[in-house]
Amino acid sequence: MADLSTTYMGLSLRNPIVVASSTLTGTVDGVKECAAAGAGAIVLKSLFEEQIVAETGALLEYADYANHGEAAEYLQGYGMELGPREYLQLVSDAKKAVDVPIIPSLNCFSNERWADYAKKLQLAGADAIELNIAFMPTDLRQDAKAVEERYYRILHDVKTKVSIPVALKIGPYFSSLANIADHLTRDRAEAPDFTVGWCGPSTNKGKVVWSGADALVLFNRFYQFDIDIDHLGLVAGNHFSSQSEIHLGLRWISLLAGKIDADLAATTGIHDGYDMVKQLLAGARVVQLCSTLYLNDLGQIKVMQRQLEEWMAEHGFANLDAFRGRLSQARSDRPESFERLQYIKLFVGIE
Q: Which of 4, 64, 168, 250 is the most exposed place for a label (fewest CB within 10 A)?
């Protein structure tokens, strides 16, 4: 029997399958079902920054700040569904109910007011925290530097409040993804240059004052947008990913594995055990599942475990470390094949 155990951000997992943040993990019963189905770890349904702000009593100020004057009533009702206090109880109850790591998720886009809440999550028993930084930079006056700085500010504020691991779930839309991935995950004696103004330069040379993320989750699948041409209105796009969406994350897992000081979690487009094998070969520590569990039910976790075990037996691998990262760029004798050469082959036909 193959050994599927692994570690993620220093946490021990029985296998590399993590149930991603979703309604599947929004209740204690849901968490129990995911654990019973065989999940190695569970990311709880996200608590949104808006909900935290609503409970602080600063809702009207926030709504005005966000330039959505009619948003206050909506946010107030939304926060009542599962507010910050109830969420802390969910973390505590989930930890008591199952024996797999519990990772609460914070969906945020600013560093205002709520960073102290991360400490409360740790006190409630969280094994780690996943920061899902989800905002769309649509302001024409905001340049790339300002966008990146927001990520650094949020990460810094949380890392200074907690001692448990912190994962950062990001999208792929950066002008230099490799560079920001390196900056976000590297511990250093000084803050990144463009954050000196708010974090401050180190006064103790050699001592870490900037602590990077313990893991990157690649990639955030932002809410899909569509247009109803019959009713002339805006509608939600496809809620679920397809297997064809695996390739972007797969490429960047393979490019970053072994090069940055953090674990890599793969998500989006992973629907069966063979998709999981691809991500592990590229260098992922774990894979996060969501859409496939809605489409196939939680029994898909066992199916994927069996597919992984069968593949490992076929290729003679006794454990995950025997092949993890084997097809990453860092371990390739032809690293150029991960970049420009693929385009040349495709369009010119060079063998």
A: 64
